Amino acid sequence: MMAVLLSGNYSLPASQAEVYAALNDADVLRECIPGCEELEARADGIFAAVVRLELGPLKTRFRGKVRLEDLDPPNGYRIIGEGDGGIAGFAKGGAALKLAPDGEGGTLLSYEAEANVNGKIAQLGQRLIASTSKKIADRFFETLVKRLQNETVTAEAK
Predict the structure, then answer these.
(1) What is the domain partition of the chain in residue ranges?
(2) What is the pLDDT of residues 27-57, one digit of tens each?
(3) What is the pTM of this model?
(4) Domain 2-157, what fold?
(5) Pure H helices in 15-158
């Protein structure tokens, strides 16, 4: 078992309420999560997902569940999740997401995450897993920013 720690900050071009709503919308999440093949919102803040991941030479499909806890709209929540990548291994972890106004009508999102991995994934090494995880997070938020910008432009055009 190997632990990987991540944290980051992103500036998002929408209000806290809009960002919070987007981060709870299965359609938005499905579009933004790199490699997401399926995402289904279930009862009680649980999402079931199938995500195709490439970690260095390892390509695998993870099936997993994510649960949202400590909901504090529109200020943030905690995510707890686990995924099974078959022979590639298993991952579980969590993240705390915090949203705050940026003073210019947008939102500053900050997160701290920890993941524990085992199996072939853990053999890849902490540095590769951490850098790949950071790239995935960056791609997620880049896509979310574009989506929020498009929604703002569409709303202003009406």
Answers:
(1) 2-157
(2) 999 999 999 999 999 988 899 999 999 888 8
(3) 0.90
(4) Alpha-D-Glucose-1,6-Bisphosphate; Chain A, domain 4 (3.30.530)
(5) 16-22, 26-32, 120-123, 126-157
